[in-house]
């Protein structure tokens, strides 16, 4: 029985490992993490299980004294409820700030800390640190981010072009809903 459990566990971990033979996407190079901190609104994302009920999402990043970044992700559901997850991010390689690890505080990260960290690659960042693309090197996750909940059509087009240039399937994006589309709680 232990052998069967071990085989299933190894198969699960191997299934989660990178299987893409594609070249990883281009990232931005150096990111000033002090300028990057603050609030980012999700404009769109590729579908992912843990955000399946989210219609509006935002991330709050704050530098910590040890150089890591405190992460608070908030998600609003269609019925107007907010869900929140906290964690931290840090560079995958020291002094390379465009490729980060991120780990959220939950039972899985406490049980299997080495397996619960995720890739957070900053693929595009405008000069003013107002819009960004963040993704996974296997191109299975992608977020279009902005300092504001909405952007112009011109900026949206630029973000889509940058994502497409890096090999992401932008036809599968889930877009942020406007406030009017979300149920408002009764007084």
TrEMBL record:
Alphabetic keyword roster: Cell outer membrane, Lipid-binding, Lipoprotein, Membrane, Signal
Pfam families listed in its UniProt record: Lipocalin_2
Domain Lipocalin/cytosolic fatty-acid binding stretches: 31-176
Extent of the signal sequence: 1-19
UniProt keyword Translocase present: no
Main location: membrane
Subcellular compartments: Cell outer membrane
Homology family: Belongs to the calycin superfamily. Lipocalin family.
Protein name in UniProt: Outer membrane lipoprotein Blc
Organism (species): Stutzerimonas azotifigens
């Amino acid at each position: 029985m232990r052998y069967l459990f071990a085989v299933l566990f190894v198969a699960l971990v191997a299934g989660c490992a990178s299987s893409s033979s594609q070249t990883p996407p281009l990232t931005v190079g150096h990111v000033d993490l002090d300028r990057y901190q603050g609030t980012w609104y999700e404009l769109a994302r590729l579908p992912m299980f843990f955000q399946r009920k989210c219609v509006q999402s935002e991330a709050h990043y704050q530098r910590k004294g040890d150089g890591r970044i405190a992460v608070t992700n908030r998600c609003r559901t269609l019925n107007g409820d907010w869900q929140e997850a906290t964690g931290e991010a840090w560079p995958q390689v020291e002094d390379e700030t465009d490729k980060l690890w991120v780990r959220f505080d939950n039972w899985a990260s406490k049980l299997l800390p080495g397996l619960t960290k995720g890739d957070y690659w900053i693929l595009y960042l405008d000069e003013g640190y107002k819009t960004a693309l963040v993704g996974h090197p296997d191109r299975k996750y992608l977020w279009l981010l902005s300092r504001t909940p909405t952007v112009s059509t011109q900026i949206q087009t630029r973000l889509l072009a940058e994502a497409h240039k890096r090999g992401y399937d932008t036809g599968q994006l889930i877009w942020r809903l406007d406030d009017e589309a979300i149920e408002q709680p009764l007084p």
